Amino acid sequence: HVHVVGNACVDTIFRVGRFPAAGETLNASSYADGLGGKGANQAVAAARTGAAVTFWTALGKDRAGAWIRSRLDRELSDLEAIEFDLPSDRSTIVIGAGGENFIVSGVACSEAFDPIAQTALADRIASGDIVVCQGNLRGAAIDACLRAAQENGARTVLNASPIDAAALPDFGLAQVLVVNQSEAKALTGQDDMAAAADALAAKGAETVVITLGAEGCLALGPDQGGSFRLPAPRVEALDTSGAGDVFCGCLAGGFAKGMSVAPGLTFALAAAAIAVTRPGTLISCPSASEMAALIDQ
Ligand code: ADP
Question: For residue 220, what is the domain's CATH number?
Answer without folding.
Answer: 3.40.1190.20
